[in-house]
Prior knowledge:
The chain has 308 residues and is α/β, with parallel strands linked by helices. The protein is 37% helix and 19% strand. It has a single domain, classed as Inosine-uridine Nucleoside N-ribohydrolase, Chain A (Alpha-Beta Complex). The protein binds beta-D-ribofuranose and calcium ion (CA). The site of calcium ion (CA) has 7 residues, from loops.
Amino acid sequence: MKERSLIIDTDPGQDDAIAILLALASDELQIDAITTVAGNVPQPLVTDNAHGLLALTGREDIPVHRGCERPMLRELFTAEYVHGPTGVDGTELPEASVATSSKHGVDAIIDYCLGAEDGSVTLCPVGPLTNIGMAIAKEPKIIPRIREILWMGGAFTEPGNTTELAEFNAYVDPHAAHVVFTSGVPLTIFPLDVTHRALMLPRHIEALDAFGTDVAVAAVGMLRFYERYDVDKYDIAGAPLHDPCVIAYLVDPTLFTGHAAHVAIDHVNEETIGNTYEIADAEPNATIMTEVDAERFFDLVVQRVGSL
Length: 308
Ligand code: BDR
Ligand code: CA
C-alpha cells in the first residue's frame, strides 16, 4: 500500500537518478510528479534525464514538469566536473516517448499543493531550492498544505563541497533556500553531515551489478562514473550517495537520526554565501539529520534498485 505520495524536485545528476529509481522501486511511495530544476547541469538536460529514467523503468505515466532555468538571483553554477557534461555520464538513457508537461514546474508544485488537504503534501527537493522557493513566493497559500519538505542540501559541522563552507545545492540558490527556511514549512534536511557518512563502497556497486538487469546496468554505469570525483578529492574508498538519503528516510526513518534546530543560510555575504548554520536558542524550524546506518541504507538501495 502507498503510504506517501510525493513530488520529487530534482536536477539529475547520477545521485538524483538513484533517488528516483529508489522511489520508483518502493511500494510505500507514489511519485505523483517530477519537477526539474537547473543545477548539476542546465535545462533542458535535467528534464531530458528525468524523462530518460522514466523511459528506462517503463514509468512514463509519471508527468515531468520542466522548472526553473536559473536561480532566483545568481548566475547558474553547474557541476559537470562531478556529473559529466550530460549530468548522467556513465550510461546512455533511452529517449522519452512522451512529451514534457506543458505546465511549468513551479505551477505544478502550486497546483499540487492547492489541490491537497492542509498538512498533507510531501515535497522532496534534491537539488537547488529554486522551484520550491518560487512556488512559495508566487502562492504562499501552499504553505499550510505542506506536511513536510525533505531536502538534500547544506553543511553544518561538515565543510562544504563547493566552497569551504557551502554545499552545492545551498550554494547554487541560497536565496531560494532562505525563502524556504523562513517560510514556516516543516523541514527535514539531509546535509553533508549525514551524506558524507553514506559512502558507496565498491562492494555495494558490485552487489547491484550482480542483478544484471537493464536498470542495474544503467545505475552501475552512472555510479562508477560518479564515484571518481569524491574518491579522488577526499581520498576515500567511495562516494557519498547524497540524494537517495531523502527517499530512504521516507521508506525507513529508523535508518537516520537527527535533531531539531533553527537553521539559516548566508545569502548576503559573497565570501560565505550558501553557508548553512544553526542558531542556538531560537525556535526550531527544521530537523537536521546527522547519522545514518550506512549498511542498512545501502542494503535498501541495492535490493530495491536491483529489483526494478
Ligand atoms: C548535491 O549536489 C549535487 O551535485 C548532488 O546531486 C546532490 O544533490 C550534493 O552536494
Ligand atoms: Ca541533486
